[in-house]
Design brief:
Length: 715
């Protein structure tokens, strides 16, 4: 990504260099080996010399060159990321050691790029849509449908009205019965019959705003979100034919009915069959009038942070609402937000050196020369026999070593001297117990339970610029006496915490990095890093958090919205489980009740994510509430498994993971009920599982073949 504040970076911005380069007519397959590396391109950074703008070369642009047999015509399967390679192979049926052929390449192009990534989106608008769950090719998620049961069953989708709660009653389960599509085809025929040249013009526009976009973008699999917006132009074009279709219907009516009645009949029929049907069916999943979830999440996240905090977030969905509520509403402008998705870019790192709003500059060990251009884009760990594996080093010293320009502190790579990471065991200065009490980080009564010797192990062998930035910030904050609170959004990737997990303390929706850890806390929630500040989290959930319309029963929340609700359900269960372990079960039930009221069944159905709440109700002793919720979860699971059992063998096999997940959830609910003494509910759930299992016996304990999807970092 670029910051277009000068001519050089503006050119990079216009050239879309931040998006990389996709081959169009000639280029590699994913297994092709490059023969040379073009380093003729330069990276520049702007500076001021003698009062004038000056541009310094700060690195090289590296572009692999493919020659001879390594370059192919019309390459579609080109991306060599591991996740994409696996998905390519799955899409065309290649084994782990098979090499792709030209036929495989075209098969992927037709099946994925044209059918799945274009035609499916087109048919959503004019035939119907199964649901809003992001799809990667299976029969359960985001297919186009007609709403005509036998036609959908012929396509391997089964009866889409029997998929279970959250799927069949999904607000985006839109049945248009092919009527808009048929009217558009009628209009196409009418135009070509009346004026072939005009028809060719519109058809050309349709092609270049639809299929041609798919050809140009050359999308790899594992797209992090649905890309229907890329093809909006062809849907607009198709509506031209829908309009002309009315004239065709009018002509047909005239053969049977004379006068104005034919015109009125054609218009009335077409209005009912297409725009009124579409408005009636699709309005509910396009209405945003009562939804304020993005603002609520931003408010809640910032409410978790101590004054003058630094908050690390990840991705667009997490960061943009925070920027909005700070910049537009002026809420918590003292918190410095750092988007780790941008932290690998030099201009973004440089901005951390400046005060923004009420938030001070961010402390860092490294200076501009260390991160500008391609400096420290990545650093590898090099194991040395001279360094004992159990020895810990001051993180500041390690950062200074990795930032060093001294040739003696460098290794070799790509034929040139490069910095490296000499050790992965670090320590940073902590605070004594008295200072921790004064800073309000720990209660005096708990000081005999904490360890202030802060040591941790970096979890990766390769650190990218964003990782190095986090380490440099942690070291600098520690050196300054932990005066700046450091927070991590709980939705970060596991490696973004720098290995500091034992020193993280969950406060509501975020983790705070503390210079101590508790020595005697039993791990109640294995998914939680470090420990939980139960009192602060209880207060946040019960008294502070907003729900953004989730507390209502008449607001539609799409899948990205529901991901936020998953966080609330899981985090609330973690807090409740810890409160129950501390013998504060009344407070645990209050937290669970608040989330159940804040995220209604209509806002997000009781699928596997509600298991965490039900299990926590059991542990808190609220058996009636646990049983009521468990029954709904089990009912929805049974409906989904029965629907999967009704599919053809290939479609069933692709959903084996879903079947196993539903059985695991039911098994866990039964086990949890049994553990707390609710043997009646445990036996009832088990009996339902026993009766259901024979229908999908071949799928149980069997993993589905990978269909791609979901492993990209973009959000």
């Amino acid at each position: 990504m670029t910051n277009p504040d000068n001519p050089i970076s503006f050119l990079d911005y216009v050239d879309r260099e931040q998006f990389g380069e996709q081959p169009l007519f000639f280029g590699p397959y994913f297994n092709s080996q490059w023969s040379d590396l073009d380093t003729s391109g330069k990276l520049y950074a702007q500076s001021r010399v003698g009062g004038k703008d000056h541009y310094d070369i700060v690195g090289k642009k590296m572009k692999p060159v493919y020659n001879g047999d390594a370059s192919h015509f019309f390459p579609r399967m080109y991306d060599n990321q591991e996740g994409h390679i696996n998905a390519y192979r799955a899409q065309v049926g290649l084994g782990p050691n098979d090499e792709p052929s030209g036929k495989d390449n075209i098969t992927y192009f037709i099946n994925y790029q044209m059918n799945w990534m274009w035609w499916r989106y087109f048919m959503w608008n004019f035939a119907g849509r199964q649901n809003d769950v992001e799809g990667q090719g299976d029969a359960k998620r985001a297919n186009w449908i007609t709403g005509i049961t036998f036609l959908d069953q012929m396509r391997g989708l089964g009866d889409t009205d029997k998929m279970g709660s959250g799927l069949s009653d999904n607000a985006a389960h839109n049945k248009l019965y092919l009527l808009p599509f048929i009217l558009g085809i009628v209009g196409l025929i009418y135009q070509f019959n009346r004026n072939k040249k005009d028809g060719i013009v519109v058809l050309t526009l349709f092609f270049f705003t639809g299929a041609a976009i798919g050809i140009y973008l050359n999308m790899p699999p594992n797209q992090p979100r649905e890309r229907d917006y890329a093809f909006a132009g062809c849907t607009y074009t198709f509506t031209i034919w829908i309009g002309l279709g009315v004239l065709m219907v009018y002509q047909l009516f005239r053969k049977a009915i004379q006068g104005r009645v034919a015109a009125y009949g054609a218009i009335g029929l077409c209005l009912l069959a297409v725009p009124l049907l579409m408005a009636n069916v699709e309005w509910k999943d396009h209405d945003r009038s009562k939804k304020t979830l993005a603002r609520a999440v931003a408010f809640n996240t910032l409410s978790c942070c101590a004054p003058n905090a630094v908050l690390f977030t990840f991705g667009d969905n997490q960061t943009y609402p925070l920027w909005y509520i700070q910049e537009v509403e002026g809420f918590r402008k003292d918190v410095r937000i750092i988007n780790t998705s941008l932290l690998g870019i030099d201009w973004y790192v440089d901005q951390l050196n400046y005060r923004i709003n009420d938030a001070d500059a961010v402390p860092m060990i490294w200076t501009k020369k260390d991160y500008i251009g391609d400096h420290h884009n990545y650093i590898s760990y090099l194991k040395s026999p001279q360094i004992p594996e159990d020895k810990y080093f001051n993180l500041t010293d390690i950062c200074n070593f990795m930032n060093s320009d001294d040739p003696a502190n460098k290794g070799s790579g790509r034929g040139e001297a490069m910095n490296y990471m000499p050790a992965k065991n670090f320590f940073v200065p902590s605070l004594n117990k008295e200072d921790l009490i004064k800073a309000g980080m720990v209660d005096a009564a708990d000081t005999n339970r904490i360890i202030t010797d802060m040591k941790f192990n970096y979890p990766k062998n390769l650190a990218y610029k964003s990782d190095l930035a986090i380490l440099n910030i942690i070291a600098a904050v520690a050196n300054q006496g932990w005066k700046r609170p450091l927070y991590f959004d709980a939705g970060l990737r596991s490696g973004d915490y720098g290995g500091t997990g034992d020193y993280l303390h969950m406060e509501g929706l975020v983790y705070r990095l503390m210079p101590f850890k508790f020595a005697d806390v039993a791990k109640v929630n294995q998914q939680v890093l470090g420990t939980i500040n139960t009192e602060k989290s209880y207060d946040l959930f019960v008294n502070k958090f907003l729900w953004g319309g989730g507390e209502r029963t008449d607001v539609y929340f799409d899948e990205p919205n529901r991901h936020e609700f998953v966080t609330y359900r899981m985090d609330a269960s973690f807090v409740a489980n810890q409160l129950s372990a501390e013998n504060k079960k009344a407070k645990a039930i209050q937290v669970l009740d608040r989330v159940m009221a804040g995220v209604t069944e209509q806002s997000y159905c009781y699928d596997y994510t509600a298991y965490f709440i039900a299990a926590s109700y059991y542990r808190a002793g609220a058996l009636a509430k646990a049983d009521s919720l468990s029954n709904k979860i089990v009912r929805n699971a049974i409906d989904e498994v029965n629907w999967i059992a009704s599919l053809r063998d290939n479609e069933k096999s692709a959903l084996a993971d879903d079947v196993n997940q539903e059985f695991q959830i039911m098994q866990s609910l039964s086990s949890t009920a049994y553990q707390v003494g609710d043997t009646t509910s445990a036996k009832q759930i088990y009996e339902k599982m026993r009766l259901l299992a024979p229908k999908v016996q071949d799928l149980l304990q069997k993993r589905a073949a990978p269909r791609g999807g979901g492993d990209d970092d973009e959000q």
